[in-house]
Design goal:
- By secondary structure, the protein is mostly beta strands.
- Helix content is 5%, strand content 37%.
- The protein has three helices and 57 strands.
- The chain starts with a helix and ends with a strand.
Length: 715
């Protein structure tokens, strides 16, 4: 029995071998031969030891290990600790493939994790290759640089990570939360190539730049990435020079099944480390072909592509500065193309938002600031065409916002709202092209400095048409026609399809009516059976302020109306200004008329004259009675105050077609009076210069009587 215990212990030892022991291997020589103290030998020893091992590279001075062939594939968990940079910022240890682009430098086998810090690897096919299911953490290293600190990529990829396979997730972590954790990476064709990986984190790296970030190192793509979860944050990325479009970009995001939106945060694309100098290149800055959220990035320097190009639905852009320096105070001088381009497949893009920090700054771009060729985009709360102070003009070279890429394309169902737009004098603030473009709502935008505020079809101001039956972008929606504006209110008429809900917004403007300087009022009306509606909006503006309006229906928003200069609430003289004859189809406000001498009816109301420009009519009215009366036009009662003895244009009346000689009607409601009193008053009124035809109705309401008067329109 006494001898049975050792037997049991031996059996237990055979059944339960000792746990693997982690070892540290020191590299003390720079030879590539498989000798004691070499890196090649250390990797072989670590692979043979089943534990998570460490290789400590302790070679004095700046040294190069010239790799005559690929190093042994890392097949066991391993940490490689290099010497890091020297005092001048250049690397101290370089792994350099002697035959450029012929074999990989460091390779991590499937399902193995490795951490590498403080190395430089250059001139290999892939300087660091991560196989399917492997995991790499790379910090404080140089990829594609020599001992002199100069770029020496030579190969295809700086860092390559293979796609995840079923049960074998590939993960990539480049850099870390501190600036010192970041890597400097320059790939011959692609800096970082990680397609179909499970997770990717890139933080505080410089990719496609020199070590100091002052200049670009050219390649086709800085980062080519598709990952189920991805965070790209606080990096400086530049150098894409492979040409315009989706082919070449500083960051190119691709789609992968089941992916969460990639988080692209606080990066600087195409801008030098001084935060001011553009690192110009022929490719785009960011090409988004996979789900993504871009927030608080600086995007600049593209001379062939766009700042941000979107190719997939539902991408979100908030808080970015595009085509400017990091401070947002000056344009990126090299950025010659679009700021944001939304391609035909990128429906539902969100650019900006309602939150105070959600808006993007898009200014100083060589082409259109934001160009949408897709549908359903929301462009909201952005500052476009001005510096970050909101006042210094930094306009783009073309329209601030463009919907529709060409006359043959269509961009529909977009919302452009609550943006501040400073345009360029040679282009529209907002332009819509494409005959099929429809339902684009342009609401509450403040626009200044542009050739025209809104341009449907890109051909300058479009005149209204009777019944709004013409076709084109946004249905060439008719603009409101202002017939009066005072310091207190503005009156306009709508001519569009019958029984249509119309949202009308009034703005203060410049003398030319090309600017929307402040939003004055916003209301919704419904047109009657003839497609007309009367709109009265508060203004609260000083005398002499031009007022303009827009109309928005399901067809979309109109261009700006012609401006109408606000007068005092009441006229200051006893008569109105002389009539000015205007063309029949002119889209301008009605002109005031001279009040003709009339005998005032006993109840105090006098209609002095009717005037029309071929589309609308208006009345000169005064009321010397003691009671406010109402005039019913287009289904809306409008008051005429008591003792309003100074006649003025009031109450525009709209019919489908108004021509001189046509009879139109209005209804006046007066205080209770006998039928004989009304007839006597009308008999006197009939003796005025204009001899109107009058029809007396028996229509009465409690305490009130009404009459309808028909007048022939005179010029």
């Amino acid at each position: 029995m006494r001898r049975s215990l050792p037997v049991v212990l031996v059996a237990a030892a055979l059944l339960c071998p000792a746990a693997a022991h982690a070892s540290t291997y020191t590299v003390s020589v720079s030879t590539d031969a498989n000798l004691t103290g070499s890196l090649r030998n250390a990797i072989g020893l670590a692979n043979a030891n089943p534990g998570p091992d460490t290789i400590d590279i302790a070679i004095g001075g700046a040294q190069t290990i010239a790799l005559g062939s690929q190093l042994p594939t890392i097949t066991s968990p391993l940490t490689i600790e290099g010497p890091g940079p020297g005092p001048d910022g250049a690397p101290l240890l370089l792994l350099s493939c002697t035959t450029a682009n012929a074999y990989d430098g460091l390779e991590i086998a499937s399902d193995v994790s490795a951490t590498i810090t403080g190395l430089s690897v250059a001139r290999c096919a892939s300087d660091i290759a991560v196989r399917a299911g492997a995991s790499l953490t790379l910090t404080s290293s140089y990829v594609g640089f020599g001992l002199d600190g100069a770029a020496s990529p030579g190969g295809t990829n700086g860092v390559y990570a293979a796609s995840s396979t079923s049960g074998h997730p590939t993960s990539l972590t480049l850099g870390g939360p501190d600036a010192a954790d970041g890597n400097v990476i320059a790939g011959g064709t692609t800096g970082v190539n990680a397609q179909g990986v499970d997770s990717a984190i890139l933080r505080n790296n410089r990719i496609g730049t020199t070590i100091d970030g002052a200049q670009a190192v050219t390649h086709a793509v800085g980062v080519l990435l598709s990952a189920r979860t991805a965070t790209i944050a606080d990096n400086q990325i530049a150098g894409a020079s492979g040409g315009p479009g989706a082919t070449s970009a500083d960051l190119k995001l691709l789609a992968v099944a089941g992916a969460q939106p990639a988080q692209v945060l606080r990066n600087r694309f195409g801008i030098a480390s001084d935060d001011a100098t553009a690192l110009s290149h022929a490719g785009s800055n960011v090409a988004v072909a996979g789900a993504a959220v871009l927030r608080d990035n600086v995007v600049a320097g593209s001379i062939g592509g766009s700042g941000v190009s979107l190719y997939v639905p539902d991408v979100v852009l908030t808080g970015n500065r595009i085509c400017t320096n990091t401070a947002g105070t000056a344009p990126s001088t090299a950025h010659s193309t679009f700021g944001i381009y939304v391609d035909t497949g990128a429906s539902g893009a969100t650019i900006g938002g309602d939150a105070a920090d959600a808006g993007n700054l898009v200014a100083g771009c060589g082409g259109v600031g934001i160009l949408v060729a897709s549908t359903g985009a929301t462009i909201r709360g952005n500052l476009i065409g001005a510096a970050i102070d909101g006042t210094t003009p930094l306009p783009s070279g073309a329209a601030a916002v463009g919907l529709g890429a060409s006359a043959a394309s269509a961009s529909s169902g977009n919302t452009v709202a609550a943006n501040r737009i400073v345009g360029v004098a040679t282009a529209p603030g907002i332009q819509i092209v494409g005959a099929g473009s429809a339902g684009n709502a342009l609401l509450s935008n403040l626009i200044s400095g542009a050739k025209v505020g809104i341009d449907l079809a890109g051909d300058g101001p479009t005149p209204n048409d009777d019944g709004d039956v013409d076709a084109g972008p946004n249905g060439l929606q008719n603009a409101p026609v202002l017939s009066n504006a005072t310091t207190a209110s503005a009156t306009s008429t709508i001519d569009t399809t019958p029984k249509t809900e119309v949202r009308v917004q009034a703005f203060s403007s410049n003398a030319a009516g090309t600017a929307a300087l402040s939003l004055l009022a916003d209301t919704t009306v419904t047109t009657d059976d003839t497609g007309h509606a009367l709109v009265a909006l508060p203004t609260n503006v000083p005398v002499g302020t031009p007022v303009i309006e827009t109309a928005t229906t399901t067809d979309g928003t109109s261009e700006f109306s012609a401006p109408f200069v606000a007068a005092a609430t009441q006229s200051t003289g006893g008569t109105l200004l002389p009539v000015v004859s205007v063309p029949k189809q002119a889209n301008v406000g009605l002109q005031p008329v001279v009040a003709a001498p009339v005998k005032v009816p006993p109840f105090g109301l006098s209609v002095s004259k009717v005037v029309s420009d071929g589309r609308r009519m208006a009345l000169g009215v005064k009321n010397t009675g003691k009671t406010t009366v109402k005039v019913l036009v287009g289904g809306t009662d409008q008051p005429k105050s008591a003792r309003s003895t100074k006649p003025g244009i009031a109450l525009p009346i709209v019919t489908h077609t108004i021509k001189p000689g046509k009879t139109v009607s209005f209804t006046i409601t007066i205080p209770s009076a006998s039928r004989s009193t009304i007839r006597a008053a009308l008999k006197r009124h009939r003796s005025t210069t204009y001899r109107p035809t009058i029809i007396v109705r028996n229509a009465t309401t409690t305490g009130q009587r009404a009459y309808e008067q028909s007048l022939k329109i005179r010029r």
